[in-house]
Records
---
Amino acid sequence: MPMDRTPAPDSAQHARKRSNQWRRWQQEVIPPLIPHFVRALYLTKSLRYCDTLVLQARRACTGDIPCASITKRKIALVRFSSVENIELEICECTPAAVQLMKYGAFPCAPFHPSLAVDLRVLEFTMNLFVQIAPNNTALSTTLERCLGSMGFQLDHQNSLRRRFGNCLLWYIHLRNQTKEQYSTKLEEARATWEAPLPFPEPSPRTRPSEYLRRRCPAADVNVCIDACFTQKKRKSPRDPPRTHPKTHFVPEEDAARTEAYVDEVWQVEEKRAKRQKAMEDALEAEDGCEASFKAADEKREKASTEFFEDTAIMGLLCRHDRVLWLVNMHSAGGEETLFQHLPLNITVGLLYDVACSFERTCRKWGFLGRFMDRLAFAVSVFHAFGHEWACQLLYHPRKCKGFGFTNGEGCERFWHSIGHLIANLRDLRLYTLDMQIEHADDASLTNLGEWIRRRHLHSMKKRTEATAALARCGKPVSLLREQWALQVKTQTKPLPPESQLRNKEAALGVSQRQALHTLATSQYLRLRMNARALKRRLRDRLRSRKFELDKVERSFRRLVNDQKLYSHTESAVKRREPTISKVNADYNKLCGEIAKLVQEGKAPRGAVAPQPIPAKGIWQLDVDDGIWQDVRSGIKAMLELDRCDEEDGRLKKERCSLQEWFAEEWAICLPDLGVDKAALPPWGPAAAEISACVVDAHVAARGEDRHYGRNVSDDEEGEDSGGEDEDFGTLDAVETADIYRNAEERSSLY
């Protein structure tokens, strides 16, 4: 006998219903609710005195014809410590959302809600979810059980989760739309230009665009880019689009157009763009850098386009670690977008993990062709260990002009700060990321001045150390610059072909052949070549060890099975440590033998013995350790003084930009808001005036270097800034580079 079965839900009907509901929220409910929300904030002093609001009776219809239908609706109002049952009379003139907003609550549905939530509960939850991973289920269940323990029961178990989620979702949207409306009102008071699309020529500008100044008032031109492959989205039906009013993402249509252009260039090999100038770097060194990073990527799990719609996120951040743009990794175009917002005479310093390969690709295929003369490429400081020495001579930011002490690791710090969101971004992914970034920007805005002050103190300390080192060297700066230029020229010169070497050897005379034979049998030369081979082997093994630990160090969620895999990886890497230590010991032994030959006069005139590598520091991967380079102390001090000069000049410009931005905002806001106030003094408003204005703002803790990091005092900076790899936040990719540190360091990091 056939059994009656419940019909399967119609997915298309559900999608239409959800789309209609979203349209009503966005077009019919939220816009007219903004003035009532602003008035509620004003009457309650930013929800401080929300208990003073009373439920008002429905007023008579204001139209010529009274509303045909008046519906009475019982609504459960959820507060922190109670559930209040209220009854509303709803009509077209007085919708439920307006009546509830006047009472300090927000509905769960556009027109006929069955539940409302206190604005203070929603405000608390909104701020909580930018500090931790959003988890509506856990919060609503906790609130429901807490109210149940006090004797307040809802309709049935788990009845709060979905409706509370709707309240929170659209309250956040109301908040953002309100901020955007007032920002637009203030922008109308200043002269602005419309930001063009990525492909057209940028408009002439005398200063960065208002968009760029909003993102970073200091408006610096040193930026870093990087991709995060853990931030991805599975292929699934999307909800109706809901874009954050202040989104950081490049529009998908612009990114798709750039992606199509890149694919077309790569497919047509016969029409490759010619290089605009010859690359200075030796191709052998550049190929080695590309091969090492490519090998590391092959060991890392990348998102498959078969399962994921958005495979990663590419970020473009300024040197203050403030996000300028984001773009989904199935596309490109962030660099093109940046130049639309800058004056035509500004040169941008771009830091990237593989900047050498990136510049080579751009010149080979003609990407960013019209902007290449305004781009200066450099490698992020903490990724310098993966590059050949010849590459570092040209791309290391401490050895390139114009970068100061910018390290280019802001993207790594940003990826670490949003790592807790990976498991929770199944839906509303882009909107949630925009919310997190906006919260971080609000928290760091009041701290930009403190950031500049601390960087100035750091630059002063570096200048003192470099000046002392230069004095100990005793060589004139002109001689050091000459030697540095010769070293760069020699070590970046392409190697001659083997055929040329054979021809030159065949052309040697008798005496020259004898001299060549003497060199080939020289004990000093043999030891020197063996030492060079051991040092290269040690570099390769340390680099491989770092890449093997990369997966362990970047893991945010430690599941049981994953923990076993990570433990196995750690033990396997640890078993190879004695081999690395032995190679290091052999190298130091050869250094001692070479030094002995030099002292005994058995080495060529002017020969200098290589410096031994301390066994204690080989695991730290400091980019200035002896394992990575052979620059003498005088040249290092000279280069550091150059970076100090650049950093001080950059900090002065950033300070002026920040003061100009604040003075302009002050001059625009006061008259437009109807505030009668005198002109801004040169030193800014008093602390009491600022404190009186900051009622509902996110204030960063004093002494916090950046919005993703921890509190760092000036004394702590002296310890953290001992090497070139100073970092003022938790940098997951580098600061945990050695997982086998002692227990004290392990506990301090985790």
Note: The chain is about 50% helix and 10% strand.
---
Amino acid sequence: MKPVLFVTNHAPPFRIGAFKALHERENVHFALIGGDVRHGGGGTGDEELPFPVIHPPQRTVARIAASGRYRAVIAGLSGKVALPAAYAGARAGRIPFVLWATIWAHPRTPAHALSYLPLRHIYRHADAIATYGPHVSAYVRTKHPKGPVFEAPQAVDATFWGAKATPDRRGEFQILFAGRPTREKGFDVLKDAFDLGTVVVANDRTPEQLRNLYAGSDVLVVPSLPTRDFLEPWGLVVNEAFHQGVPVIATDAVGAAAGGLVQDGRTGLIIPHGDVVALRDAIERLRDDPTLRHTLGENAREAVAAYTYDAWADGMSRALAAC
């Protein structure tokens, strides 16, 4: 059976398990085009990757996709040239094209405005689409796709993040912020709640250090804001925290909340983005109710168990099978 060509930018550590699971099912060759890494870390040396990798210039992707060596093409949204090239190559080679859709709103910048019409065409004419979750699926369906839409749930390494940790606890009530302390991540909003507990900002920590901080924290806060060029696609820190049984306060601008992993009053609390009063109220509610914290945390641990690398690979495989 011919392999599948998967065009994406990088194979960062948090994706390797998912890519490996898909390769074991479908025989996938990954074309890593490189480029900026905005979310979640860079790549890994090819010698460490458990699947075949090539590093083509973006301009050559169409020729590779149309070469006859592959039975289908999957492509994510990365690369100004790579995505349309992958689509064009699949069409030229008369093989199925699957779009891996990751956003739930198109960025509102002049550069992104130029890409909207070509991307809308791909949404409409892809043979199948695999998405990050229900929130992305809902957005994709507004583009009236002709092909079926499947969900490939976002996942992290459950064995690692769910393992027993050494709690890193620095205060009586510990609030964790895991990520870049930038405007789009809502850090300025969180600053107005610093007086409600011991706030730990975890940026550039090793995975082991971050796992210990999850284990030592009472709540993870993900206060992301929408901007012209950013709407949190998911937020894998939510999955990581849930594996340690830590509840999450997330805004309605976080993909993991819009996509159903963070469920208000069940696995965490969802608040309006940019609302300092709502954020303070949510933090105080969890601070003052340890029973609620425990219940949300246990529910969170149970909910995230379904978000596995195999579940992601299954969603991608179903998209391929539908073509």
Note: The domain at 4-155+308-321 is CATH 3.40.50.2000 (Rossmann fold).
---
Amino acid sequence: MNAKSKNFLALSLQTRVTLIALAVFTVGIWSFSLYMRQIVEQDILQLAGDHQRSVAKYLADEVNQELADRLAVMSRIADELGPIITDSSALQQMLKSKPALLHFFNTGVFITDHHGTALASLPLTIQRVGINYQDRDYISNALTKGQAAVGTPVVGRALAVPVFGMAVPIFDSQGKVVGTLAGITELDKPSFLDHVTQTAYGESGYILLVNATNRTIITSSDHSRVMEKLPEPGVNALIDRYIAGAEETGVTISPRGIEVLASSRQLAVTDWYVVVALPTEEALAPFRKLDRRNELAAILMTLLVGVLTWRVMHRQLQPVHQAISKLTMLSEQNLPLQALNVEHDDEIGRLIAGFNRLLHVVAEREGELRKSEHKLSTILDNINSHVFLKDTEGRYLFANRYTCEMFGAPLEEVVGQTDARFFDAESLDQIRRNDRMVLDEGKDVRTEEVNLRGPGKQPQSFLTIKLPLRDEAGNVYALCGISTDISDYKSREREMRQQAFHDELTGLPNRRLLFDRLDLAIAASRRSELYGALLFIDLDNFKPLNDNRGHEAGDLLLIEVAHRLQKCVREVDTVARLGGDEFVVMVQNLDADAERSSAQIGIIAEKIHATLSEPYRMHLKDENGHLTAIEHHCTASIGVCLFHSDEQSAEDILRRADQAMYAVKESGRNGIQFANGQHSVVAPPAPA
């Protein structure tokens, strides 16, 4: 390294950057180039716009003169039609005597009365006579305003092709409008509008004749655009200004998506205007060729300055490059952080020294962070809950040891997977639904989730909490979930509920559940006005069976009675055991009529009575463990109480049914008794 290089390196970084910054002259070159480009483009567009305005004015004047000439001729002829307006034949002859009209209008002319109905027409091949045209704006304007009118282009009623009409009023001797003379020009045929359609403008430019009233192109040098609708108001500001009557030149995007330079000129006779447009690409084509040469020269100069600047800056920033290389090596090889070399006491040297101090602080914090992560990992892997993180697509980012054990996969295989790998379809649906509430709506979810494919194919219940994790902008980027297995708790809860509301021997609802359902049935009866009924059933001569055969025989009999009662009624009805040999059957939704309801429940009661009276065949174990078959005959005393929408309580209904049952007992057992005493069936006692 020579003396000049050493002296140069001894300078401050600010001095070195100042010397190198001379290269910013390239910015000046490009700024000047862009500025001149804009100025020249504006000048070229201005010249092109001036030419376009001249063309637009010429064409507008031509079309305007053609329209004015036709209206003038029509007005002179209309003056002759007033006296003969009521004579259709004379009108037809008059039209035939004016062949010039067919020269002016390529689709003919016609005369209407003051109602707009055609009275005469040329040529005769177009059958217009008798057709009413009052809905055409040029006819209605001539009739109502008494002025010549040029109509809006429409699809013709007689020809079904795009046309526009012109009309002048016909006055009688008192100056009253008595009809119109109208001429029709078809836009698809040669006409006086050929000044527009046959005028070429540049290679890709075009000319339009537009009706401002309905924003429709009347004709164009591009014939495919005839009757094309212009964009709705608010879409193109320049077109909106043309529609409003402005005559100006501007750059806009055409309806076909091309940037064009457009100029307009309004017509005096009607609300039409001429548009002359040229794509800016064509207008600026000569300048663009020169501009590309200038750009090439500027690019070459920029590349040259860039190479020189890069070499100088690379030399000046060598210490920075060395520091970056060392930091990259430490990172890739996972080595402990080391201080960087400070070669010069300049701005870069002081920057590296400050960075060394920062490295020391980072190293200390990394040590603390590793300790903290180890503690957290230990805690998460030893808590008796499933802890996991998922991204917005439902892929696992983390799962603790307890979760991995449930999935039967190590953490490396769990990360990146979705729940579809670990859960069945039905379980997956509820899990994903809860996940989307967190990820899409940002809600906290606390719910119970069920894994139908748990250990041993048994369902698992989990109490799950899922929370959204948000970035600094408040957007949800992941969810954190904690699930605790509550399967044992749910099982114990089901067992306790079963014991609390069901008879342990028969599995039937007990007194508590019966009263709950009876209260609901009473409320439903009030709403539907349908009767319900309660049957209180007591087995006759049950005690001797217990005394003679033991409690095992009695229990078997009670279980069989429960089964028979359930087969006698619908699934929506309730069969309950109150205790001992007492059973209750509750039937709902009988009938709105008391007698019919009484008959219905009577049939059910007799069916129950007959079913319970059938023999009972049971097998008991003797002292040696052998099964012994026995047969037992048993009857039942049944009390029936109807209930409706009156103010009866569940206790009242059960008490009345109980009283009716005891009435059967007192009258000899083995029968059916209604609580109102209107119906009873008593059968002779069966042998025990």
Note: The chain has four domains: 46-282, 320-376, 384-491, 502-682.
